[in-house]
Structure formats: C-alpha cells, structure tokens
Amino acid sequence: MTLAIHGGTPVRSTPWPAWPPPPDSAQRALVAEVLESGLWGAAQGGTVVTDLAAAFARRSGVPYGVACGNATLGLFAALLGLGVGRGDEVIVPAYTFVASATAVLLAGATPVIVDVDPTDLHLSTGAVAAAVTGRTSAIMPVHLAGSPAAMDPLNDLAARHGLAVVEDAAQAHGATYKDRPVGGLGDAGVYSFQASKAMTAGEGGLIVCRDEAVHERVWSVCNVGRRRGGQWYGHPSVGWNLRLTELQAALLLPWLDRLDAEIDRRNAFCAALERELAAVPEVGVVPRPEGVTRDSRHLLMLRMDTGVDRAFLLAAMAAEGVPLDAGYPPLGTMAALTSEGARVEPCPAAEEAARTVVWVRQAMLMDEPAAAADVAEALAKVLSAGGDASPA
Asked: Using one digit for the tens of pLDDT, what is the confidence trace for 122-177?
C-alpha cells in the first residue's frame, strides 16, 4: 500500500474537530452582557472574574481562587505567595512545557530539573528525593496530558522536608486523583486557559489555594501590590497587574457546565483508540500514574518502539490526514534555562520520551470514538513501511 507521503491515498481526508469549539449560547449571552455593561476590566466593579475564581476554587476543593493573565504568571504568583524567591530552588520535571521552569526563574529562584517516571512520564518521587538540598523550597508536579501526578508520595516527601507543593494543572481541568480534584492537592494549583487547553479564552490562568494568608499574598501579587479592601493607591507590597479581564471570564465561566461532558467524550475516544492499537504492536499508550480516578485527556501520549524513525513517522502521519505532535524536548537540553543557572539532574527517562513518544492532540480526541480507527489504521500503514522515507 503506497503511503500518502509517496503519492498514495491518505487514510483520512475529512477534517478533525476544530479547537476551540464555537461559543455556546450561554457564552454568547454572558459575553454580550459584559460588553453592554462596559465593565470590561477586572478592576472596574464587574463580578464575572470573581465568580470564575470562586467556581474554580470550589471545583478544586479549596476556598480561594485568583484569576490571572496566563498560567506562567499564575505559577510565578503562586511561588511568590508561598514565599519562594531569591536563593531558593524549585524542583520541576524534565518532561514538561518550558513555562514550568521559566516561572521559577521569574520568581528569582533556581529551577532544578529532575527526571520523570519511565513508565508514566510524570515527576519521579525518587528523583525528587535525590535532588533535595538545603536550598530546596518547593516541588512543582505537573499533571501531564491531563493525567494527575501521583500526589500522595510527593506530598509526603514535601512534608518530611518542609517544602511547598505547587501543582501545574495547566492541562488537567476536571481531573481527579483518588477522587480528589487536582489543584487542591498541594499548597497551590494553577490552571491555564491558553488556546489549546480544555477551557480557553485565548489566554488566561487561575490560581487556587487553601490557606488564607497565601491567598492574600497571591491576590496582592496579581493586583499591583494592593491589599484587599485597602486604599486604591495603597501598595504595601510589590505586585504586578496580572489580572484576567471580564470578557475572558465571560467565555470561561459557562464552560464549567459542559466541561465534564467534554472530558467524557475525550475519554471515550481514548478508550476506543487503545482498543484499536491492540492490533499495532509497535505502539502503546503511555499509562496513567497510579491513583488517577479521572483523566481530563488533554493529550493522549503514545510510545513507539525504539527502532521507529519518529521524524518520518510524524511526516507520514500528517500526509495520511492524522497529524501527531512530537511532544516536549527535555528541559535540561534548553540552553536558555541552563544559561540562567538551572540545575539539571540526570534525566534518562525524559530523554527516552523525547525520542519515542508522540501525542494525539485534544482536538482529535473530541471526535466520535469510531474515528479512532483512522488513527490506528494510519499508524499501522506507516509503520508497515518500516520507516522508509523513499517512494517504493
């Protein structure tokens, strides 16, 4: 069978679902209401931003939430709210988006990049334990691809060493670990509303936490150093304008009502694809960490046999109408981080993932489960070619 990249007929010619989906009627109504009110900024007296923050806090099982401009700034604000700053170290996983580390740099601290579990690709408790020093102040587990990290052992380790835990929940809206929602499992949790995420306003972020004093500091960091209830031009501490707008919040607040249905849809597609892949022995689904009770399925990560030419696979799959993503390079390979003083521990599992793991993106996961057959068929077709980059 001739591959599409060599002039053959592609497996799929119909488009995948678009992301983000069109706004629903509730979003349109709330956006129109905010537009007509003229209260577009978060500091003008509108209530949608505060309603969104409160709703996310409740959903995360904690009392406090603060909306902000994006999740990178949210991680930065959460770290400052927990007292992390100059001279401190924050442990982050090697297989994650660069913002997990750059938020640490933004806070004036040093990212310590450690390895991930070789099976599930989440932050390794053993690697964290080996990297703790007298300067370590926090751990940042990442709920990768919408799968919650194994939080209990990480929290136990943090408690033994007196460390803060900041959850990077940017990809994990609605996910649960042992029936407890992410975001509220550590000292603070941060969500993203960037365009690719499960809820989006184009950009945006939100911090949740359980401690009132932490909440007050985070709120001040995001509101130019003001104190809640204080004078408008009173700035008792240093802060920045990191606020979300009312218009963005109007897109996000109604989304909470349909989030669970969308998670169910993605999980149905992933289950169907896992069944289909039983007939493609060169490919396996990266398993979820132990303790995951609800996976939001921001991505589905697939691991290829080590002999597969991944660059050719990605090009050939795109030609078949089934585009896949190469995923993350290990953070420790990024000169931008090491030049700023990031400490890099040995990360063989992350390096292996960068060679063998590919992603099925969220938009594809929103299709009907029957469409999973197209992904499996295209993989089988391309892999049967043995990675041959030349036409037959």
From this structure: 999 999 999 999 999 999 999 999 999 999 999 999 999 999 999 999 999 999 99
Would strands 205-209 and 188-192 be described as parallel, antiparallel, or unpaired?
antiparallel
Report the predicted TM-score, pTM, of the whole model to 2 decimal places. 0.96
Task: Please tell me the CATH superfamily of domain 259-384, with its number.
Answer: Aspartate Aminotransferase, domain 1 (3.90.1150.10)
Looking at 3.50.90.10, 3.40.640.10, 3.90.79.10, 1.10.150.530, the CATH number of the domain 25-257 comes to 3.40.640.10
pLDDT in tens, 42-90: 989 999 999 999 999 999 999 999 999 999 999 999 999 999 999 999 9
* Token code pair at residue 54: 């409160």
